[in-house]
Amino acid sequence: MFLHAPVTAPADVPPLNGEPLPLEFVNTVFPVRGTLRDGLRTPEHLIWWLRSCRGRLATDLPDDALNGITPTDTHCFILLRDAAHRLVSAYVHEREPDGWDVAQINRASSMGRPWPLLRWEADGTPSSVEVSITPPVLAVQAEIAHALIRVLDGTSGLEPRACPAPGCVFFFDHARSRREWCSTGCGNRARAARHYARHHRTA
């Protein structure tokens, strides 16, 4: 059985909260002590994130494909992530999206589309198989874009929300357990902030 190489995390990696993949992807911008960090900022960070999430991908992403990731690949993922982040934000806050962001998602979605290949079996029965010659790193971008489109067009069953906790910039799936915050920690901070505000209003 093939075993994947162990995941080695570089410094300041984004938390993985178990959100659906497109929301996990946009959440790779995250706060550290009040400063936003980019969790995909170097090839090493992108490799770590893809390794950590590849069990949730339909695209086969072997170690040799990951180890070949370049700064150009990283830049392409960041462009896709930034467009996805702005589109999810526009969706959640009911704002008009930027046309450039829509074009970025559609560009990524069109990459690596497989096609059916006709085969004739030995028993004389025709069949087909889906094939693609797209490199895995590009195919992953297309897969993420497809998943994001399904979120935004309402066919995924997800309900993206912006976490309302102070200082949080994450999106989460409200349909899962009807949560109001992205994590227990954010829920605790939000309740503490409300308690503090009430106490100081009445003091």
Computed CA radius of gyration, to the nearest angstrom: 20 Å
Return residue spans where pLDDT drops below 50 for at least 5 consecutive residues.
1-6
Strand content bin: 5-15%
Number of β-strand runs: 6
What is the N-to-C order of secondary-structure elements (H for helix, E for strand)? HEEHHHHEEHEEH
- Strands in their spatial order, largest beta sheet: 1-2
Task: Provide the residue-averaged pLDDT.
Answer: 88
Which structural class is indicated by helix and strand composition? alpha+beta
How many DSSP H or I helices?
7
Q: Kindly, what is the distance between the CA atoms of the first and last residues, rounded to a whole number of angstroms?
A: 65 Å
Major β-sheet profile: 2 strands, antiparallel
Oligomeric state of shown chains: single chain
Q: Helical residue percent?
A: 40-55%
Globally, the shape reads globular
What can you see in these coordinates?
The longest helix has 22 residues. The chain is built from 7 helices and 6 strands; from the N terminus they run H-E-E-H-H-H-H-E-E-H-E-E-H. The chain starts with 20 loop residues before the first helix and ends with a helix. By secondary structure, the chain is α+β, with helices and mostly antiparallel strands.
Key traits:
203 residues; alpha+beta; two-stranded antiparallel ribbon; two-stranded antiparallel sheet; 13% strand; globular
Walk me through the topology.
Elements: H1 21-26, E1 29-32, E2 35-38, H2 43-53, H3 63-67, H4 71-92, H5 99-110, E3 115-120, E4 126-131, H6 136-152, E5 160-162, E6 171-173, H7 184-202
Antiparallel strand pairs: 1-2, 3-4, 5-6
Helix pairs in contact: 4-5, 4-6, 5-6
